[in-house]
Specification:
The protein is built from 15 helices and 22 strands. Helix content is 37%, strand content 20%. The strands form six sheets. It has a seven-stranded mixed β-sheet, with helices on both faces. Strands 8-7-6-9-10 form a five-stranded parallel β-sheet, with helices on both faces. The chain is α/β, with parallel strands linked by helices and 510 residues long. About 3% of the residues have low confidence.
Length: 510
């Protein structure tokens, strides 16, 4: 691992910020030790920044914005293309670091880096497609159109579970839009952020561009709160819990800023009596245990028609009992560790609560011990029979717990159960019946931002806008027209006549 850290430019002690802070100013700060959930070993030590450091970074970013906004959008796209190429060169190393620092299996670590590469490719094309509209004016010899301008500084607060991909969704799109970014990664996974920053700095240096186009700061929640409060940052994009998102929305809204929120998910898969059970079970297992249940799109509720309930339950129990759990860097491992012991405690508390409320634990729910599990962060993914009305089922537990819920009526009943939670991120239905699938996708169907048919809740592609409704926050990142969140819209009217007619036929003679 040390060889990989060296390749990515990471030393034992690394400044927690890159832009606007000189080496001489670093000192006397809290040192955070970063341990791998894979083996419990110390990876590195990182100096934590504070709000004074944030002020310096914002000032440097403001100066960088003066330069970057003048660069034509296709040329900004060329810089992002070069970043994508650098990510390709470092894909294996960065994927390994994602796995070792966060705990997701190596294939998922590689997949996360590939998401970064893909969004770079998407952003390069987008740099030539930042289209406005033209409108016909009601006044003669007038032309109307709208155009989009950079919004300025974009603050990005990301979570540990996707330590680099979600940042890139924001940063690469914002960059081609002409914005500059200040990134606060999770303090649980700062090393991957430092690695990405090192990669980007080399590209900016090669092109004689200021480092402040892409900045980052590693700090605790007080730094994130300061970013949300600062009027110099017009847009805050925050990924995390609903509780955190509500605080961000309140703070940013109080200053009439813009917030883009990607918050909790309590995602369900519906398996109807017309489902292909082979497909449904495979998708459910990946959705529920992938990243050890620590995805915002993880499958948390399985809503099964009574006619196939017992078969699905029995097959899932058998699969769960044979899951390969262990070192995420080892080939063949399907389930790695949870991020830390606090997450493990949340898992255990949820297991206890569902049983107190009357649910039945079918399998799993234990913390693994012994050789290879010394970190105390490995658990057996759990299956539990439950009611959708249970309080613990209504909540999002960021852990590998799948609640099995039986329904007996038509697809409308299953959809009602699916929608009867406060979160609205991802959803899926497995059916070979077109009426059921169309009902699920209709205005009366799933109320989530993502609704899939015959694929699971997890594994979104970058081409579509990603996000959800209700307590998921309503934000949209990545593809489609999500770029508009990072720009300001301006309507222009040009009068090329010698007269001055007013709209709506108003006459005003002086």
């Amino acid at each position: 691992m040390q060889e990989i850290l060296n390749q990515l430019g990471i030393k034992e002690l690394n400044p927690a910020f890159s832009t606007g802070v000189k080496d001489a100013e670093i000192g006397g700060r809290e040192i955070r030790e970063i341990y791998s959930p894979a083996d419990g070993k110390l990876i590195a030590k990182v100096e934590m920044a504070n709000t004074s450091d944030l002020d310096n970074i914002i000032k440097a970013s403001q100066e960088a914005f003066k330069v970057w906004r003048k660069v034509p959008a296709p040329q900004r796209g060329e810089i992002v293309r070069q970043i994508g190429d650098k990510l390709r060169e470092n894909k294996d190393a960065l994927g390994s670091l994602v796995t070792y620092e966060m705990g997701k299996i190596y294939q998922e670590g590689l997949g996360e880096v590939q998401e970064m590469i893909d969004i770079c490719d998407f952003a390069v094309g987008l740099s030539r497609q930042l289209y406005g509209l033209s409108m016909h004016s009601e006044r003669p010899s007038h032309r109307m159109y709208e155009q989009w301008h950079p919004i300025g500084l974009v603050g990005i607060i990301s979570a540990f579970n996707f330590p680099v991909a979600v940042w890139s969704w924001n940063a690469m799109i914002a960059a081609v839009c002409g914005d500059v970014c200040i990134w606060k990664p999770s303090e649980k996974t700062p090393l991957t952020a430092i690695a990405c920053q090192n990669i980007i700095k080399s590209v900016l240096k090669d092109n004689n561009l200021p480092e402040g186009i892409f900045s980052f700061i590693i700090g605790d929640a007080t730094v994130g709160a300061a970013m949300s409060k600062d009027e110099r940052i017009p847009l805050i994009s925050a990924t995390g819990s609903t509780r955190m998102g509500k605080k961000v929305a309140e703070t940013v809204g109080a200053r009439l800023g813009k917030s883009l929120l990607e918050l909790g998910g309590n995602n369900a898969v519906i398996i109807t009596e017309n489902a292909d059970l082979e497909m449904a079970i495979r998708a459910t297992v990946f959705g529920s245990v992938g990243t050890c249940g620590q995805r915002c799109t993880s499958t948390r509720r399985l809503i099964i028609h009574e006619s196939v309930y017992n078969e699905v339950k029995d097959r899932l129990v058998k699969i769960y009992q044979t899951l390969s759990i262990g070192n995420p860097l080892k080939q063949g491992t399907l389930v790695g560790p949870m991020i830390d012991k606090d997450a493990v405690n949340g898992f255990l508390n949820a297991i206890e609560k569902v049983q107190v409320e009357g649910g039945t634990l079918l399998t799993g729910g234990e913390v693994l011990e012994g050789e290879g599990f010394e970190s105390g962060t490995y658990v057996k993914p759990a299956l539990a029979e439950a009611s959708n009305d249970f309080q613990i089922v209504q909540e999002e537990t960021f852990a590998p717990i799948l609640y099995l819920i039986k329904y007996s009526g038509g697809v409308d009943e299953a959809i009602d159960i699916q929608n009867s939670v406060k979160q609205g991120l991802s959803s899926a239905i497995f059916t070979q019946h077109i009426r059921e699938s169309e009902a699920f996708l209709s205005a009366l169907g799933s109320d989530c931002g993502i609704a899939n048919v015959n694929i699971g809740t997890s594994g979104a592609e970058i081409g579509g806008a990603f996000g959800g409704e209700k307590e998921t926050g309503g934000g949209r990142e990545s593809g489609s027209d999500a770029w508009k969140a990072y720009m300001r819209r301006q309507t222009n009217t040009i009068n090329y006549s010698a007269d001055l007619p007013l709209a709506q036929g108003i006459e005003f003679d002086i």
